[in-house]
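Running this now, will post back.
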Amino acid sequence: MSRAEDLPQGSGSAGGRLRHAEADAEFTPKQLTFRAYMEHSVGCADCDYGNVRCGVAREIWREWRALPQ
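Update: finished.
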């Protein structure tokens, strides 16, 4: 199982938003989760680029902070 497959896949999780998980096996779960957060915040009308505004962004940010360095 790759690291990307270890990420949670629930509807509110960052793992569910990783579009290229198989191609990103060289990235850590923390890096993939941060990318998911940034991709979400750029495309979300309720978020301001880089600032947590909506519930989805807050949940992805919590997941990112909980992951080890």
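The two ends are 20 Å apart (CA to CA). More later if anyone needs it.
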